[in-house]
Amino acid sequence: MFDWVHYSFILHLVNPIESGDFLWQLRSYLLYYTGVIAMALMGLVMIVSSRPVWAERIVNGMDQVYQLHKWAGIWAVVFGALHWLIKLSKPLIVALIGNANRAAKVPTMQIFSDYVSLAKSLGEWAIYAALVMLVLTLCFDKTEGGHPFTIASAPNPDGYIDFHIKALGDHTRHLAQTLKPRQFFQIEGPYGCFDLSRVDEQCQQLWVAGGIGITPFLAWLDALVANPRPLQAQLHYCLHHAEHSHALVQLQQRIQHLPNIQLFVHDSAQNQRLHIENIHLSSDPEMCCELWFCGPSGLLNHLQTGLEQRLGKRLRVHSEAFIIR
């Protein structure tokens, strides 16, 4: 038997306004839906802020969870601000068409009717607080919370962990002067799906790193040196001024023990940029190719476009967000 009570409730959610002049109806609709969307996005922000591991499986990596948290937060504030501005539009509409034929108010459930005034007051202050928090999230030292960094070493019995951190923002720019020998700090994780265990050895392997994006591949090579396996891959490292790169030295040291890994260095200072023509792929029309990429998005787009033209559906792309903020 069809439940008309639930049907009418759903209709009310979709079409809550029944009468009134067009501008009053439009205001009511916008007020209603901007509020609903803002609350939904705020709820999503609260969920993903806990960095749940299960979310990685949905969006393919904790870096993407951070991106989702960032944009959900931004749009939550945008819709919240729109909701507030629409609420303030009442005097303007009254001046344009008068107050005689206003749209009917969306009825409030009885259990909430006593708290409407409180909700309005709290909501106004909440949007002010949200705007302030949005400003605080733009790169301040102690209030900006933890930073995600990629581990550049394989697991070690002694608990040693290696990080390569580039000075890209206000926090990382002063990190070398802030950290002291034997200083304690807290590490949470690890997270992410950019994992050597997910590599499909039935596919030809194309690994591409740009600048500091070499860090996950250093960890991969470290793991392969410690636990050799017949994995073949070509690793392309794109950087600027190779002669000053400490990471390149570490990379070459690891490659010496891994004859199945081909290293190609592309130094932009020497006009040695990576192009599709530099990548040699198998001529087997049935062979798939996995592109594992960590670097600037522009380089990824260039490579992905060219490789898709050559390989079509045989290309599988795995990448980490190089810029999270």
How much is the average pLDDT?
79
Give the beta-strand count.
5
What is the terminal separation in angstroms? Answer: 51 Å
Q: Which value, in Å, is the CA radius of gyration? A: 27 Å
Percent of residues in beta strands: 5-15%
Structural class estimated from helices and strands: alpha/beta
Poorly predicted spans: 1-11
Share of helix among residues?
40-55%
- Major beta sheet, strand line-up: 3-2-1-4-5
Written as H for each helix and E for each strand, in order along the chain, the element string is: HHHHHHHHEHEHEEHE
Shape: elongated
In DSSP terms (H or I, runs of 4 or more residues), the helix count works out at 11
Characterize the main sheet.
Answer: 5 strands, parallel
Q: How would you characterize this protein structure?
A:
- This protein is of the alpha/beta class.
- The protein is 45% helix and 10% strand.
- It has eleven helices and five strands; from the N terminus they run ααααααααβαβαββαβ.
- It has a five-stranded parallel beta sheet, with helices on both faces.
- Helix 2 packs antiparallel against helix 4 (62-87), helix 4 (62-87) crosses helix 6 and helix 9 (215-226) packs parallel to helix 10.
- It is elongated and about 80 Å long.
- The model is unreliable at 1-11 (pLDDT under 50).
